[in-house]
Amino acid sequence: MTEKLDEWETTKRIETLVDGIFAIAMTLLVLNLSIPQLTSSVSNITVENYLLALIPKLFTYALSFIILAIFWRVNHQQFYKIKRANPLFLWITVIWLLFVALVPFSTSLMGEYGNTQSANIFFNTNLLLIGIFSGLIWYYATKKGFIDKELSREKIIELNKINLLLPIVALIAIGASFVIPAYSTLAYLAIPLVKWIIKA
Amino acid sequence: MTEKLDEWETTKRIETLVDGIFAIAMTLLVLNLSIPQLTSSVSNITVENYLLALIPKLFTYALSFIILAIFWRVNHQQFYKIKRANPLFLWITVIWLLFVALVPFSTSLMGEYGNTQSANIFFNTNLLLIGIFSGLIWYYATKKGFIDKELSREKIIELNKINLLLPIVALIAIGASFVIPAYSTLAYLAIPLVKWIIKA
Amino acid sequence: MTEKLDEWETTKRIETLVDGIFAIAMTLLVLNLSIPQLTSSVSNITVENYLLALIPKLFTYALSFIILAIFWRVNHQQFYKIKRANPLFLWITVIWLLFVALVPFSTSLMGEYGNTQSANIFFNTNLLLIGIFSGLIWYYATKKGFIDKELSREKIIELNKINLLLPIVALIAIGASFVIPAYSTLAYLAIPLVKWIIKA
Amino acid sequence: MTEKLDEWETTKRIETLVDGIFAIAMTLLVLNLSIPQLTSSVSNITVENYLLALIPKLFTYALSFIILAIFWRVNHQQFYKIKRANPLFLWITVIWLLFVALVPFSTSLMGEYGNTQSANIFFNTNLLLIGIFSGLIWYYATKKGFIDKELSREKIIELNKINLLLPIVALIAIGASFVIPAYSTLAYLAIPLVKWIIKA
User: Fold this and answer.
1) Residue ranges covered by each domain of chain A
2) Is B197 exposed, middle or buried (0-12, 13-18, 19+ CB in 10 A)?
3) Which of A69, A141, B56, D8 could form a disulfide with C80 if both were Cys (CB 3.0 to 4.6 A apart)?
4) Percent residues over pLDDT 90 in chain A
5) Over the stretch D58-76, which tens digit does the pLDDT of each residue have?
6) Inter-chain contact B21–D16, Cβ cutoff 8 Å?
């Protein structure tokens, strides 16, 4: 099923771009934690209260950082096996990265308006799209034979199942956005449970 | 036609700089999607309206992200073949990167004032210059014999033609800026068509 | 003591992510040095006074840059030896990076409110957590046998001791935050002394 | 003259950090080209005037981008030869990077207040310090024998001379800051001339 590929279509430089975009997106998350510039001299209590009010934003920062790390790890696992590419494969990866690079914005939206339905739907849809394209990368690469031959059919199907994990949780979170917007992101804490169900 | 080169003039570290600047420029695009910081507690409808008003900026974000990815891919293809360098080659690459790193600014200009002629001309001229210098990289490298020998004359000419693709589309978009400023960037959707004409 | 590992769990791409996040966090520190945008034309004295008032922020910039470089160097030293990984090891590293990426924020907090106790406690606690997780990376890797075999038991213990250095200094700085908040960060200048005591 | 080194003290990961910090510093320069957010609908002339007023900032952007590229190229040339390191060598490199990462700030200062003496002295002193530490890297590495043996004494001295180039030009620019502040940076255009004098 492998098609004829241009020799330069390897995944080495794609990996470099992926690692770069993840490193930057993960570090840009911190820019959402801006501090107000008070011109007058401030008391210790003012700063303390300010930091306490920052706790929801710190939670969103940690959540987004860890979710991005999960997606990076999944990609790490996929690209260990995927060694060739074609133009369509590259474009699926680029669209996936487009949604990855959007996470700092979605996160800032959640940090400011995390108690509104709209912000929750936007954030969870962003994660859903990352999950779908991450799954597409693996599905397309296995279909086109871009992976090492020695990977068994069972292993490929198992990895396809794992790829369903984050989209499913994101869908649950989108549903929760309509009922309990302020707590929809807690759905991601259910990942270990869903992981166990899929594997069972 | 190959000249005597200093042994350290390889393209390995240039590639690292290129990948780094692309990854950062692509991720910085997201900073244009800033959200207004409303101090009062906001309703869901407010956030929803705000997000709907953001759609043109999201379109510009996606367009710039994909155009940068196209240029990165072209460079990826070029540098697979180019293995040596000289000072002038490095400087052509640096000027090219200077215009690449300018894209987040051009994009923010389009996001804010995309319906004005000036913004469209600035944005499209930026892409035109990236396209021209990208073409120069390939033209100079082939002229100086910095590429692998086994590349046929036909292949080199074919790649020179492909390098004309983006400058041509950028020129069309600049022209369109004078007639229909708000829609000039739609010209880039014509890339598949122009690609077909050039190859024909 | 080595467990069965998935073959793809190497530290090569983790290193790339670590280097990326450090390079970005170290460069983002500079964003705290913002200049006021005065619309009227300003005299030379105004700019001079502004730059003199910036000296404490420049000190904080340099301090954070160097502390991040110290942690990067420790990681560099650790990962030269650590060649394998498992999921838990990866997650310890990710949490460590989460606190590394937080440093530009802690630094901006210190730059604005460095004379308050709260800002000093936040900054020093951030460094304490980086130090603890940096130590955990080494402790867990040696316990699980992820390092090269030829490292002697004495060397491992010595490196475990070095890992205590930064947490100890951070604890001293936290203590100092309660007494002399504006000068708590001077504790980090004591690093050479503590280094000498630990080795003795 | 070579001392006993820890085996892990190679320059491979230092190179990665250097390339990362340069790529980010060069791309962050663009953040100085911010556009005013006008809430009312603006005419084409308004945007055109705004862009014309931006020309001095675009010049400063290009100048800083190219100067950083020059320093990156010098480092590229140095590290092709330097293969080992010790703690002091690493710290010289870190201090050098500290001043490299400061360039986006110096540039923004020049972009806003480029006609004042203070801004010019700050900017040129920043470049002077980068030049001095860049020279120190090469001087220390050759003195300690961290470079490949086959480099002739003449070549080492020649490269030491080249390292004087940027500090000399920076000193000229600092001098010019006292006489013609608004044009001090034009001194850098004299680099090709000074290069010719040093080599003669």
Assistant:
1) 23-199
2) exposed
3) D8
4) 32
5) 988 999 999 999 899 889 8
6) no
Which chain C residues are Cβ-neighbours of A24 within 8 angstroms?
A: 20, 24
Sign of CA dihedral D7, D8, D13, D18: negative
Predicted model pTM: 0.89
Tokens of B24: 């950062």
User: For D112-126, how does the pLDDT look when each residue is reduced to its tens digit (9 = 90+)?
Assistant: 888 889 999 999 999
Interface residues from chain A to C (CB-CB < 8 Å): 15-16, 19-20, 22-24, 26-31, 33-35, 37-38, 42-44, 47-48, 51, 61-62, 65-66, 69, 72-73, 76-77, 80-81
User: Residues B87-119: pLDDT tens digits?
Assistant: 889 999 999 999 999 999 999 898 888 888 999
What is the token pair recorded at D11?
């320059």
- Tokens at D62, concatenated: 């290009």
Instruction: Output the DSSP codes for B23-79.
Output: HHHHHHGGGGS-----SS---HHHHHHHHHHTHHHHHHHHHHHHHHHHHHHHHHHHH
Nearest to A107 by CA among A118, A120, A97: A120
Find which of A17, A43, A44 to mutate to test the C interface (most C CBs within 10 Å of its CB): A44
Choose among A69, D44, D107, C38: nearest CA to B113. D44
Contact pairs from chain C to chain D, CB under 8 Å? 80
Q: Which residues of C touch D23 (CB under 8 A)?
A: 23
DSSP state of A183: G
Residue closest to A118 by CA, chosen among A128, A109, A127: A109
What local confidence, expressed as pLDDT, does residue B12 receive?
80
Decide if D21 and C26 are in contact by the 8 Å CB cutoff. Answer: yes
Alpha carbon D132 to chain centroid distance?
Answer: 10
Nearest-CA neighbor of C107 among C123, C89, C88? C123
Candidates B6, B16, B54, partner chain D, best to mutate (most D CBs within 10 A): B16
Q: Are C106 and C123 in contact (CB under 8 A)?
A: yes
Inter-chain CB proximity D23 and B28 less than 8 Å: no
Number of helices and strands in chain B (H, E)? 8, 0
- For B30, the closest of A7, A104, A122 (CB atoms) is A104
How far off is chain B from D182, nearest CA to CA, in Å?
23
Beta-carbon contacts below 8 Å between A and B: 83
% of chain B with per-residue pLDDT over 90 = 32
Long-range contacts of A40-49 (CB under 8 A, 24+ apart): A42/C113, A42/C116, A43/C116, A44/C116, A44/C117, A44/C118, A44/C181, A47/C109, A47/C113, A47/C116, A47/C118, A47/C119, A48/C118
Tokens of C31: 């964003």
The reply to whether residue A102 touches residue B30, judged by beta carbons under 8 angstroms, is: yes
Q: What is the pLDDT of residues D107-158, one digit of tens each?
A: 989 888 888 899 999 999 999 999 999 999 999 998 888 887 677 788 778 7
Structure tokens belonging to residue A107: 């996160």
Q: Looking at the partner chain, which of A35, A66, A76 has a beta carbon nearest the beta carbon of C13?
A: A76
